[in-house]
Amino acid sequence: CIPVLSTYPILKTLLQRVEKVDGGLDSQDVATSLGVDHQAIVGAVKSLQALGDVISAEQRSSKHWELTGEGCEIAEQGSHEARVVSSIPEEGMPQSQLMKLAFGKVGFSKAMSNKWIRLDKGHEGGPRIFKTVERLEDLVRDKLLLVQKGQASQLEEKEKNELKKRKLLSEVTVKSYWITKGSCFSTTITKQETELTPEMIASGSWKEKKFKPYNFEAMGVALDCGHLHPLMKVRTQFRQIFLEMGFTEMPTNNFIESSFWNFDSLFQPQQHPARDQHDTFFLSDPAQAHEFPQDYLERVRKVHSEGGFGSQGYKYDWKIEEAQKNILRTHTTAVSARMLYKLAQQEKFTPVKYFSIDRVFRNETLDATHLAEFHQIEGVVADFGLTLGDLMGILHQFFNKLGITKLRFKPAYNPYTEPSMEVFSYHEGLKKWVEVGNSGMFRPEMLLPMGLPEGVTVIAWGLSLERPTMIKYGINNIRELVGHKVNLQMVYDSPVCRLDS
Amino acid sequence: MPTVSVKRDLLFHALGRTYTDEEFDELCFEFGLELDEITSEKDIISREQGDTKAEGASDVILYKIDVPANRYDLLCLEGLVRGLQVFKQKMEAPRYRRVSPASSEPQRLVITEETTAVRPHAVAAVLRNITFTQERYDSFIELQEKLHQNVCRKRTLVAIGTHDLDTISGPFTYTAKPPGDIRFKPLNQAKEYTAQELMSLYKTDSHLRHYLHIIEDEAVYPVIYDSNGIVLSMPPIINGDHSKISLNTKNVFIECTATDLTKAKIVLDMMVTMFCEYCEEPFTVEEAEVVYPDGRTCQYPELAYRKETLSADFINRKVGISESTEHIAQLLTKMCLRSEVMSDGEQIEVEIPPTRSDVIHACDIMEDAAMAYGFNNIPRTTPRTYTIANQLPLNKLSELLRQDLAAAGFTEALTFALCSQEDIADKLLKNISETRACRISNPKTAEFQVARTTLLSGLLKTVAANRKMPLPLRLFEISDVVLKDESKDVGARNNRRLCAVYYNKSPGFEVIHGLMDRVMQLLEIKPGQGNGYHIQAADGCVSPVTICGEMDGLKDHRGMKRECRGVED
């Protein structure tokens, strides 16, 4: 509400009135005394409020009596019964003629009961009306005039109700403002500019202008922008953390993997339940992988079925047919296995730190937190002489970068790592330790057949990307985060991702 | 991870002290177990079947404990208590002994040639003069079930049969016969059935029906008889009723039939080591002799103690601690791996008992030393491994483009890599045979029939799921599709794609065209024929777009009149 010029006089008058009174003013009273519509005063109040603390206005409501349309007519021209009397000449008037007047019907019966007129039914030429009084007091009109002047309080309740029954008065609830001086009260007002224009700067007129303050209560305009997906934002942060720690990204762009690299190379026996139809997606086309490094495959067969490399082995009949089966990889560790095998083929071993964040697939029962595909985060370090303490130290640094400082480790079992440790962090909100990842040292039965040197230890850890993202963004149902049923509003509204705060 | 349910008070009684729930949870954590749930039979029934059913059920407190999948020796109360007591140094690990029967020949189990085709292996043993109580008996039955579910892989690898030896007489014969020729009264049934009848009888049995498939299609079924022709069991389905054990059973004959001999030996060792504690002479097991078709004989249970020698230095170096040889030997002994320092003061001789079949390499011993030391007591160190980080170039480019696509006003979608065949073919007016799609053989629903060959279907589904959102929708995704590729070892490869969709009441082709120009600008590809990029119309699709020779057809989504247009590169 910008004060428009035409309201200026009212603003000024209102301010002058407020200045004169000690306490305050009712906007209704101001309107009545100025003879203007109440809405005009309300407008003025709002305009003044927008200027800052010039006035203070408190909204209140009161009941008051008002003339109806018919009541107004009576206040102006007299009651129907009075008008009946005054329209009857000395010689009387035929009843039929009186009834043709607008006020005739109502006025006739009222005047009759007031005994102001009489009816001569037997008059020749039809019933005729004569007045019985010369002067009369039009009390109805007088009362309505009082109400009109705002002096309804002078009437008794009974009288007002009588007039209400006749539909001449009505009781209305009036909203008004109680106006008092504000802390910056002044009777002078300056017109406020809303925007600084190039013309004002050019002419220098901005120096004299007053500017309307911004409304900080309202929201700004919604911008038309693009957004990154929250899971991918978290992914970017994890990627950044690995890069900061000197880890090189593994090529995980191969969703389809052979059972050989996904399981056998990791010393996961062929009867392991993870290799069951219930847990893993198998492919019917292309159903089988071919071309394995033959001498390595032979060493893998041997360590499973007979042992070797210091191991008793699993002592079962290892089958190439099982290893050839193509699957959708169940973990990115399949890629780690390929990378470590490749590393072992180097002429001279060099230490490596690898990471990946990519999709993996499980033929699992789906629920609010599990989908058939999710992203696995994995870190791998291979070097001579790494210790379990090193693994815990590296995990400590990694989780520190996520803002997780309190860690502890629980012994666990995993077919391809020994020792295996579940990583727990203390959740301040839940007041308990919650599992945040899995870790371990790759078994010699996995590393030695690849051809890695005896003294090389490989430590690794993994976690899902979805879980920390759901916690970070407070999402309970994974389908609202991943997949086509995503709530785009959530994507639009999601904040930047700072994992350490 | 298998879960073992034990009565709390029974457990505490056996451990010789009580714990608060928190204390016991802590002990579990240290030992690599997890106190998963504290409940009671009543709670379980009322949760699963409602309060009325639970009335009258036991409200004895149960601890449900998660046990690592390779620790078969912790799958019953007896094993858990032994493991924890040795760990807390309240007792020494018992020494299990195989003994010959006092005054007679050992029990014999003769395997015939016929079993070769269906289930070739069998092992056996006897628990002599055992005393059952209700609790011991329940635990004995429960352990068989746990082993069946875990190491036995739902009885496919191994099936256990336990019998009251005093009701049968050896030698026993393990053979295989056509189902019509096998006839006996199975456990808890009133009359005799043939094997064929049994298979149809158990079709509706909630428990047994899961095992029928193991032998159902075989020409012959495995069966064990005693010398009088009484059926002990028809593995891996059901035992005979005649030889069933009871609380009063004194002598138990245990047989394990298997397709994997190593696992059969492990399972038999587990059954006898866990319960020989209750024999008149505790921790002894009476041997049984198994005769193979080729005449070879073997004594079971093996109860083999294996010795490994390793150095304290090896453990210190792998774990990252510096403990004395003596201390490390003590730590290992706490884990039921009796260890002695050898005369050179550096080497440790570790004895791996038959209960620890999970220990197959020195690294397993090292882990036990680390656990006994306490993972959380190990100093956390930083490896000195010096490496330079490299991004995968493909991912680096994807990351850069994502940022710029969002800057261009497009919102990133994240859709599934698996979908239905319809999504990538019929719905995009394509024939599935031209998609080079990889097919999944065992999808549980149609949503997982194929790996996607295009990103477009996922984006269109995202639009469809977000129709209540204000228009326009501008979506993009940079991700992988999967295509068959003979040149790869697995016969398929991923292909990184960019796809974008503009969705509004008016077509707005110029918007998507503008985005494509912007992408080309970002990639420093100039418009024009030859080395540059250009758009050309293609046949057969509603609004096809061709870029740099890659093509992707489009269509109005699900009959909606609004236009969706996308590009894929």
TrEMBL record, chain A:
**Which GO biological process categories is it annotated with?**
phenylalanyl-tRNA aminoacylation
**Might you give the EC number(s) for this enzyme?**
6.1.1.20
Question: Where found, per UniProt?
Answer: Cytoplasm
Q: Does the keyword Signal apply?
A: no
Write out the GO cellular component annotations. Answer: cytosol; phenylalanine-tRNA ligase complex
A Pfam family of this chain? PheRS_DBD2
What are the entry keywords?
Aminoacyl-tRNA synthetase, ATP-binding, Cytoplasm, Ligase, Magnesium, Metal-binding, Nucleotide-binding, Protein biosynthesis
Entry-linked SUPFAM superfamilies? Class II aaRS and biotin synthetases
Highest taxon above the source species: Eukaryota
Alphabetical list of Gene3D superfamilies matching this protein: 1.10.10.2320, 1.10.10.2330, 3.30.1370.240, Bira Bifunctional Protein, Domain 2
Provide a Gene Ontology MF annotation, just one.
Answer: metal ion binding
The protein's name:
phenylalanine--tRNA ligase
UniProtKB/TrEMBL annotation, chain B:
Gene Ontology terms, MF aspect: ATP binding; magnesium ion binding; phenylalanine-tRNA ligase activity; RNA binding
Domain B5, residue spans? 303-380
Names of the cofactor(s): Mg(2+)
Q: Where in the cell is it found?
A: Cytoplasm
- Report the domain of life of the source organism: Eukaryota
Catalytic activity annotated for this protein? tRNA(Phe) + L-phenylalanine + ATP = L-phenylalanyl-tRNA(Phe) + AMP + diphosphate + H(+)
The EC category is ligase
Q: Name the SMART domains for this protein.
A: B3_4, B5
Q: Name one GO cellular component term.
A: phenylalanine-tRNA ligase complex
SUPFAM superfamilies referenced in this protein's UniProt entry, alphabetically: Class II aaRS and biotin synthetases, PheT/TilS domain, Putative DNA-binding domain
What InterPro entries does the annotation carry?
A: aa-tRNA-synth_II/BPL/LPL (IPR045864), B3/B4_tRNA-bd (IPR005146), DNA-bd_dom_put_sf (IPR009061), Phe-tRNA-ligase_IIc_bsu (IPR045060), Phe-tRNA-synth_IIc_bsu_arc_euk (IPR004531), Phe-tRNA_synthase-like_B3/B4 (IPR020825), PheRS_beta_core (IPR041616), PhetRS_B1 (IPR040659)
Which UniProt keywords are listed? Aminoacyl-tRNA synthetase, ATP-binding, Cytoplasm, Ligase, Magnesium, Metal-binding, Nucleotide-binding, Protein biosynthesis
Instruction: Give the matching Pfam families.
Output: B3_4, B5, PhetRS_B1, tRNA_synthFbeta
Similarity section: Belongs to the phenylalanyl-tRNA synthetase beta subunit family. Type 2 subfamily.
Assembly description: Heterotetramer; dimer of two heterodimers formed by FARSA and FARSB.
Q: What is this protein called?
A: Phenylalanine--tRNA ligase beta subunit
